[in-house]
Each structure stands twice: as structure tokens, then as C-alpha cells.
């Protein structure tokens, strides 16, 4: 397993993260356990800021909270000076409860409800990324009723298909997201937005996909967005003040992944914007990284339970979690690396398949993990689980969702408690009267 951030193997042969021994963390908090390297999160945020400052162009960096959203995470984002991208009333509520400045929040999503839009307007959210004509009219009406002027970007699909899994491509024409550029939808939307007195159109947004390892897709998207901006200026008199290019920057999950440095992505984007807009007309560039900030900072710790060997085929080891705390292998055929956290220096002796404990044949975390001879009770650490693991966790089989701890400088902080059995039934209701079943006839 590749070690990220502050991770290292200590003198006892244990995996250590943020100066905390993972064996001790397991004893204190139990397993499964999400461990988050706070120092690495902050470092990645600062890398984006530093890379943009080096370009000399105006910019804003927002954290895409869909990757991992908790009160503690929102506080870190605020302390590092980033904006925050939310996509639901739940993410917005979390941010507000964490004390995040609402003017630095912007609201995304392809099906914002009237209640969500009203909540965001009343909270003073700084910007809305409008996804479709129905939302455009709805937001204009709600803002007018409140005698407010909502600042917006229009999300457009520029017709760029990123080299990534089909499920996480978002910039192609056939997408549930955004106004289509090729058909002229986005031009019609821009005209409607400009005509609405309760809206202020600041620019455009696009997002071409996730887990991207090259810059060509971003460069092509910028060309198309620059062309769109020129057309809007010529026909509508609109000056594009903000160009939001989304996120999607890849991280290293396994040895086959070859992500670029943050600076390489940012430099390519800056070069594309300069070429497409010219120095005099460069808009403020916005990015919204999520996975590339938190992905490598997360490690999930499990306890090994039962094992099964299929002679001549494979050996299965089962852990006390699975697709309930990490559904990405089942959803995207995602690949992960692992190590025995309590025996990290021992010789690799076998290849095993790591199975979860849930009632699905597809509940597999890793198909081929090379490890020392595994024993029941060992601690298995799976790396790069900081993004889309906690945020996609579920209660299938009525399994409780894990706790989350932040680690930094030898100290651990519990930021999400492990669910209790009472939590599982907290929202359940029994009917006031259970009808008596009639005996079968015949």
C-alpha cells in the first residue's frame, strides 16, 4: 500500500497516521473506522491556492462538499479560506451549523427543490449554479417574491467526454446535467437570465467528469467556453466575469493510477484561459476540487473476521465492513490498496480477496490484495477512502455506519460518532393499530 501524507510505519511495525498509531485508534474507537489525515487535507487545499497565485490570474477555489461533508470538514474549509460547493439542503444545513459564511457558499444540483432554493436565499447563499430552464424560472420567481437579486452561473455541457468511467462523465452532450451548448440551449438560457430583474448572470460553469489524469479535456472545454462567452458578448452584451471549470482531478488509488501534480492541472487551465479569452478579457477562474483534496487523506480501518479458501481459485478474507461504508468498488469497479496495519513490516506471503460482511455477492472491497499471512483479528487498512466513502455510506443489512476521526500531530479527534443500534430505528414508526389478519378462506 502506498503511504500518503503523514502516514508511516512506526517502530512497532504498525501503520501510523497523523502521529497516531492505528492499532491504538482501533482499540479506542472500534472498527470499521474512517481515519482522516487533517494535515494532508490542509496541504492539498494550500497547493491549489499556491498554484493559482503562481499564474497571476484571478481565481477562487471551492471545496466540493459532496466528496465528504461533516461539521469538522466545513470548519477546516472555512479556516483555509476556500469557498464551499453544496448540492442539497443537508449539505447547506451542515455548512451553516458549522458557522461557514453563507456568502462563500454556492448551490449546485440538477433538481433543486423550491424548499431548497428558498432555504438558500434566506440563508444568504452567495451564488447559484443554475442547471435547467425550470430552475431558472423558479429561482427568478422566488428571488423576486423576496425582493432579492440572486447571482447565478449557468451550467453548460460543452460536449467534452473525459477519459474516465462512464458513470462519472458529466460534460458530454447526453448528460442529465446542464444546458446543452451545441443545440443553443445555453444561449437561450442566458437571454432569459439577463431579462430577469431578480437574477444577475455572472458567467458559466462546466464539469467534464471525475478521476481525470490528463489536461486535454480541460483545454478543450475551455476553448468551447471561451467561444460561448464571445457569442454571449456579441449577441447579448454579456461580459463573462466568472468561469467555473468544476473539478475532477484524479488521485492515486492504486499503482495503475498516474495523477498529475495540482500545479500541472492549474497551469494547463491558466494557459487555456489566456489563449481562449486573451489577457484583457480573462474572467475569474473558479475550481471546485473535492476528491483531490480529501481522497488520499482518508484510510478505512477494518478487523479481519472469517476466511474461506476455494482451492485453486482464491482465498477470501471477510472484514467487519463492506459496501455499506465503501460502495465504490460495486458502483465503479474501483481499485484499492491495503495493508495489515498491525503487521505492516512483515513479509508479503499471500494474495487474498477482501470481502465485506453484507448479503451481496458483489460486496467486495479488493479482489487481489497482497498481504502477510492473514489471521483473524488482524487490522486491515484500506487507503484513499477519504472521498465518496463516508458520504455514500448506508445502512444496508441494518449495519451501523462507522465513526470518523481526524488525526493531526499525534492527537485524534472524534468528528462523527459511530451509529448506535438505537440510531438505526430512531426514525422508525409503528402504526397506531395493527390490523388483525383474517384467516385464509377455502
UniProtKB/TrEMBL annotation:
Pfam families: Orn_Arg_deC_N. CDD domains: PLPDE_III_DapDC. Pathway: Amino-acid biosynthesis; L-lysine biosynthesis via DAP pathway; L-lysine from DL-2,6-diaminopimelate: step 1/1. Pyridoxal 5'-phosphate binds at residues 248, 288-291, 388. SUPFAM superfamilies: Alanine racemase C-terminal domain-like, PLP-binding barrel. Its cofactor is pyridoxal 5'-phosphate. InterPro entries: Ala_racemase/Decarboxylase_C, DAP_deCOOHase_LysA, De-COase2_N, Orn/DAP/Arg_de-COase, PLP-binding_barrel. The keyword Lyase applies. Keywords: Amino-acid biosynthesis, Decarboxylase, Lyase, Lysine biosynthesis, Pyridoxal phosphate. Specifically catalyzes the decarboxylation of meso-diaminopimelate (meso-DAP) to L-lysine. Belongs to the Orn/Lys/Arg decarboxylase class-II family. LysA subfamily. This is Diaminopimelate decarboxylase. It comes from Salinithrix halophila. The gene is lysA.
